[in-house]
Amino acid sequence: MKENIILNVKNLCVDFSLEKGKLRAVENVSFSLNKGETLGIVGESGSGKSVSALSIMKLISYPGKICSGKINFKNNDRWIDLVSLKESELREYRGKKIAMIFQEPMTSLNPVYSCGKQIAEAIMLHQNVSKKEAKQKTIRLLKEVSLARPELVYKRFPHQLSGGQKQRVMIAMALSCRPDILIADEPSTALDVTVQKSILELLKSLQQKYKMSIIFITHDLGVIAEIADRVTVMHKGKIVEEGSIKNVFLSPQHSYTKGLIACRPALDRNQSKLLTISDFINARSEKSISTLIKSVTTKNKESIEQLKRKYASGEPILKIENLSTYFPIKKPLFKKEREWIKAVDGVSFDVYPSETLGLVGESGCGKTTLGRSIIRLIEPTSGWVFYKNKNITSYSKAQLRELRKEFQIIFQDPYSSLNPRKTVGNAILEPMQVYNLFDNEKIRKEKSVELLEKVQLEAGHFNRYPHELSGGQRQRVCIARALSLNPKFIICDESVSALDVSVQAHVLNLLSELKEEFLFTYIFISHDLSVVKHMSDRMAIMNNGQFIEIGDTEKIYNNPVQEYTKRLIDAVPKGFIQTIFTLITFICS
Predict the structure, then answer these.
(1) What angle do CA 68, 25, 224 make, to 5 degrees?
(2) Are 412 and 453 in contact (CB under 8 A)?
(3) Which of 88, 248, 429, 555 is deepest in the core (most CB within 10 A)?
(4) Where are the alpha helices (DSSP H) in 145-297?
(5) How far is Cα 5 from Cα 117, in angstroms, rounded to an integer?
(6) Per-residue confidence (pLDDT) for residue 304, from 0 to 100
């Protein structure tokens, strides 16, 4: 083996035992990692990338099993096969030599212990230090990962921190023993673009400082382009392509890699629809791919003036005036007045029929609270909401119940918004039953199956439960449920933020097609500027509960006025933009 290599995975195979036999999750995977290098492993959910990484630390538990292969780690010029080690022997390497940052910090951190104590525990486990020394080291680590007031963060519990702060705590914990290899499993997937950018910059600076090797796992090639030196592309448990970032991005060879690159919304051009991985895999020739790319590279969005002319009255379907939603903070003991969190603070705007208005901003800016206040899932503190020129802020519960047939919302997490005890079919049937739509259950069931097929699922999914479906399929069920009452207005609240880029492309295309077919009006909430730009006619930038900029999507992106907007645009990984341009040029030449 080469002197510079610190990890060598050879012919790794991982099986999972199922009732009907075995599932091969990873098949004959081989790759190496050099000292001080960042290796990106990219692929969709289920491609085997996380299982491969977990295998390195032998964290695969039943029903999973490493059935063959070697994982050689270079420890002080001596090669160790990690697969052959006993559990007690592995403790010498886990955390100390090889550390891991998991995708969801909330489930990785113990909710009953303070963040500082959890890091200090890891330090005392691997280093011969006292509690006092461990605490001092922990506070230094928290400061090193750019957490403000580290002494305060030490005492706080996970639920008291934001997503970005929790992820920094996980990084501090992973770095507590100065590991040789850091495995980062989707560490920035669910984070805002600005927080994501800061996490990537932090990892790069810490890598240079401690000369670590990093394995960075993600489904987003744009992120990989920002951080990795080499990339390995996985599909259905196998490596389909690998090489330097430059070679893989400028000249992708496998159709899966091309699809993975092209399915992300581009900021530098408009597209009538997003390409998907299946478009590339099913294409019979390079010529057919070229024709497909040319057919989707332009999209002329209608201006608000055109929308007004298109619909008779030219009146907005929704009018918001000085809407505010405040949440009370516990009243301090010696203060006379209660303090408030101003989640939404005096917001005014209009939405026109068949328009898509995008709301974009960081977590905590108030965009989700605004969406829920509009349809009174959260009661606003003050202001007015006019729907079709009727003031719905004064509606009674009975009036709201009737109105909500026209208003629907698609939530961010499809798993928590579906009842795990109800089948998919019953989830779609239930709103029809509540509002007594159609004459009988037979017709309702037929309508439910029709809606499943409308969102590109099958009639056979009717009797399945949410846990039997993938994330993308569950989100389609939520869309079908929203359509069951024939709404006119739909709020999409971060409805694609937790999905793979390929699944995201399918769902965004579906929402666009449904808008064209049923003339829906959307409010599309997201922290991802590229997604909002693709979907929206107009865009509103939100910060600290207020709109700081609103207008035509193209104008705001190309000529942002506010510094905050410029920072949001700058935070979007730019690697994929050049990649898509290069790919189109490469194929069409």
Answers:
(1) 105
(2) no
(3) 248
(4) 150-155, 163-175, 193-210, 221-227, 245-250, 255-262, 277-282, 286-296
(5) 35
(6) 60
How far apart are alpha carbons 485 and 452 in whole angstroms? 14
- CA-wise closest residue to 497 among 538, 534, 531: 531
What rounded mean pLDDT belongs to the chain? 85
Q: How does residue 315 score in pLDDT terms, banded at 50, 70 and 90?
A: confident
CA angle at 276 for the pair 515 and 574, rounded to the nearest 5°: 95
**CA 64/CA 18 separation, integer angstroms:** 10
- Alpha carbon distances (Å) from 446 to 166, 436, 441, 464: 46, 15, 9, 16
Per-residue tokens: 371: 């969406």
Query: In 10 A of CB 35, how many CB atoms?
Result: 15
**Distance between CA atoms of 200 and 197, rounded to whole angstroms?**
5
* Longest distance between any two alpha carbons in the chain, whole Å: 78
For the chain, the 3-state helix, strand and coil shares in percent, each to the nearest 5, are 40, 25, 35
Torsions phi, psi for 190 (to 5 deg): -95, 10
- Stretch 350-361: mean pLDDT: 92
Let me know: does 220 contact 231? Beta carbons within 8 Å.
Answer: no
Angle (CA) 178 182 186, round 5°: 140
Residue pair 268/577 in contact by the 8 Å Cβ criterion: yes
What's the confidence (pLDDT) of residue 502?
A: 79
Pairing verdict, β 213-218 and 181-185: parallel
- pLDDT digits over 125-172, tens only? 888 889 999 999 999 999 888 888 889 999 999 888 877 788 889 888
Query: What pLDDT, on a 0 to 100 scale, did the predictor assign at position 2?
Result: 57
The overall pTM is greater than 0.85: no
Which two structure tokens, joined as six digits, stand for 272? 């009538």
**What's the whole-number mean pLDDT along residues 327-340?**
70
Nearest by Cα to 99 from 12, 199, 187:
187
Distance between CA atoms of 39 and 213, rounded to whole angstroms? 8
Triad 442, 445, 449: Cα angle to 5°? 140
Could you give the CA distance from residue 30 to residue 43 in angstroms, rounded to a whole number? Answer: 16
Q: What are phi and psi of 464, to 5 degrees?
A: -90, 160
Contact between 109 and 91 under an 8 Å Cβ cutoff? The reply is no
pLDDT per residue over 502-560, tens digit each? 788 888 888 888 888 888 899 999 888 888 988 999 999 999 999 999 999 989 988 99
- Kindly state the helix (H) or strand (E) to which residue 369 belongs, with its residue range: helix 367-374
- Closest by CA to 463, choosing from 429, 486, 494, 488, is 429
